[in-house]
Design brief:
Na+/H+ antiporter like fold, 402 residues, mainly alpha, 18 helices
């Protein structure tokens, strides 16, 4: 009976998500806005229409969708594009999130009465750009051939994927520092920050080794569908390993995207076939990803800190935008293209909805305020970023005609 309830509820949510997405598009908004609003309305903080069993499996379904879209992103990047975007992509993964996180830490001492470590915990929850919003939008631009002359969507894809590594590592670092100080224990800040480059290097090594092994194994398969199942199973296993074992220097999402990139570089024909099949899976996955992101938002809690939250976010996003512009110094991008990159790097959603409640759960002073402002950042920036990308992309990026 429980399984039947889960199945029926997922079917209904999928149909409603598709309808709400199309409704949003009718009024010239990105479909994800309609899906997120639907999630908020039917979720546990508004009308409570979703069964508990469905809420309990929502994080797993959301993970499947994220795995899919990041794998597709990796499969869509060629070697030549990676050479072109290397330096700015690395800077985009570090500079904007670091600047924004520390600015919020400082502003929190002024507006919220936090000490700096508390502020940094909040800052690095908010600092991560949303892969759920940015990556599908960039894949859409790649399909439309917008910005492809300078590989702008690919640059933002790579930067955003590693950006989360930096933000989450620093969030974990300052949370650990807070807990250690509270209990009187020792903590090494340098050792924790050193995990950032180690995480990225480990992701590159693991993804390359897995690509080499996969290339050998799938060369034995006669059926193309088996190749798709095999490589996607590896992606799922990577995510399970991170979730189960909580390895500090392992980022499964970054590894999955790099795994897709290495597959594309080694077996291009098979990789492109795999990508076409994964694209079909993503059409289903996105119906649930954005609804479940919306379900995690408590609008009444977020809006309780509207005034202070808007002030903090306005200032921090201004500094974040400066970080994006600094990352693009000495590139061949025009001012319009740089403006587009600034807009594309605004949205928050996935990390914030997943991490917002952790400080409160762990007994951090001000945890409820952190949760409220983190969720407010989703309510404000996800629509602005998604709408901004939709508006600015055709105005700022060149279109390559076939």
């Amino acid at each position: 009976m429980t399984f039947f309830i889960l199945l029926i509820s997922l079917l209904i949510i999928g149909l409603l998500s598709n309808f709400s997405g199309k409704l949003a598009e009718l009024i010239k908004l990105p479909s994800l806005i309609g899906m997120m609003l639907l999630g908020m309305l039917i979720g546990p903080y508004c009308f409570k229409l979703v069964p508990n069993i469905t809420i309990s499996v929502a994080p797993f379904i959301k993970d499947f969708a994220l795995i899919t879209v990041l794998f597709i992103a990796g499969l869509g990047i060629s070697k030549s594009q990676m050479h072109k975007i290397g330096r700015p992509a690395i800077l985009l993964s570090i500079v904007p999130a670091t600047i924004e996180g520390f600015i919020i830490a400082y502003l929190s001492t002024i507006f919220l009465g936090f000490h700096f470590i508390q502020g940094a915990i909040l800052g690095f929850i908010i600092a991560a750009v949303s892969p759920a919003v940015l990556i599908p939008s960039m894949l859409d631009l790649i399909d439309k051939r917008l910005g492809e002359d300078k590989s702008i969507p690919e640059m933002l894809l790579v930067g955003a994927s590693a950006d989360d590594t930096v933000a989450i590592t620093l969030f974990t670092t300052f949370l650990s520092l807070y807990m250690q100080k509270s209990s009187g224990g020792d903590f090494s800040l340098i050792k924790s920050i050193a995990t950032i480059p180690l995480t990225i290097i480990l992701s590159i090594i693991i993804s390359y080794i897995l690509c080499k092994l996969s290339t050998f194994v799938i060369s034995k398969f006669k059926t193309k569908y088996l190749k798709v199942i095999f490589v996607f199973s590896i992606c799922i296993i990577l995510r399970i390993i991170e979730s189960r074992f909580k390895i500090e220097v392992f980022n499964s999402l970054l590894t999955i995207m790099l795994y897709g990139f290495f597959l594309r570089s080694q077996i291009e024909d098979s990789a492109l076939y795999i990508k076409t099949k994964m694209d079909k899976f993503w059409k289903l996955g996105k119906l649930y990803l954005f609804v479940f992101v919306g379900m995690a938002i408590n609008p009444s809690l977020a809006l309780g800190y509207l005034k202070i939250g808007v002030i903090i976010l306005t200032i921090s996003l201004s500094f974040r935008s400066l970080g994006v512009l600094l990352s693009l110094v000495n590139t061949n991008l025009t001012m319009k293209e740089r403006l587009f990159c600034v807009v594309a790097y605004l949205p928050k959603a996935t990390v914030q909805s997943a991490k917002a409640g952790i400080p409160l759960q762990m007994g951090v002073a001000g945890g409820e305020i952190m949760q409220a402002i983190a969720l407010l950042s989703v309510l404000i920036t996800a629509p602005i970023g998604a709408i901004g990308i939709k508006i600015f992309a055709p105005k700022c990026l060149n279109k390559i005609n076939d």
